[in-house]
Design brief:
By secondary structure, the protein is an all-alpha fold. The protein contains 10 helices and no strands. It is elongated, with a radius of gyration of 20 Å.
């Protein structure tokens, strides 16, 4: 793909048609994951099929740290599709630092899918609660609940002993509501 337009057309073909895999396609798409134009980097992350080759894996890990949020989001989604432990650390760093709700959600789901320890991820979310940002806290609380009752967003767990957990959970929620009713 010599021009940005050709790169976009090539990536659109990869994304739209599972059978569009011309000879040498990996050699063409891999450099697009680090293209100078952020839109092309994001589109490459959205378009490249898995499994990833070794060079692409490193470019995706770098994409999670990219300065352009759409690239970061696309890299999170690609990491989740690839399900590689290599992405766990950069995803956790993004989870620890992002102020973007969309990226927070994507980093959390992808980190869980890539094998990060769920208790560690939940602890990171608790650390992200903010004393003044109510909207942010609602997003964090949603992810805390999601991470507590699901397995990496693939469905509700069936191994929770609800008979044991429910009385404590009910009591905790009722105490929380009572203590914070005025808020």
């Amino acid at each position: 793909a010599a021009t940005p337009g050709q790169a976009v057309a090539f990536l659109a073909g990869l994304k739209a048609d599972k059978n569009f895999r011309p000879s040498g396609w990996q050699n063409t798409v891999t450099p697009l994951l680090r293209h100078r134009i952020p839109f092309i980097r994001a589109l490459a992350m959205e378009s490249i099929p898995v499994p990833l080759n070794a060079t692409s894996i490193e470019f995706v890990a770098a994409g999670i740290k990219d300065g352009y949020q759409p690239v970061q989001g696309a890299a999170c989604n690609l990491a989740a599709k690839a399900k590689l432990p290599r992405f766990s650390q950069p995803l956790q760093e993004l989870l620890r630092t992002t102020s973007n709700e969309w990226l927070l959600n994507s980093a959390f789901d992808a980190a869980a899918t890539c094998g990060a320890n769920m208790d560690t991820l939940l602890g990171m979310l608790v650390d992200r609660l903010d004393p003044v940002n109510k909207e942010w806290n609602m997003r964090v609380l949603q992810l805390l609940v999601h991470g507590t009752v699901s397995t990496g967003s693939y469905g509700f767990r069936n191994d929770i002993d609800w008979q044991h957990a429910l009385p404590t959970m009910r009591r905790a929620w009722l105490d929380f509501i009572k203590e914070n009713r005025g808020e």
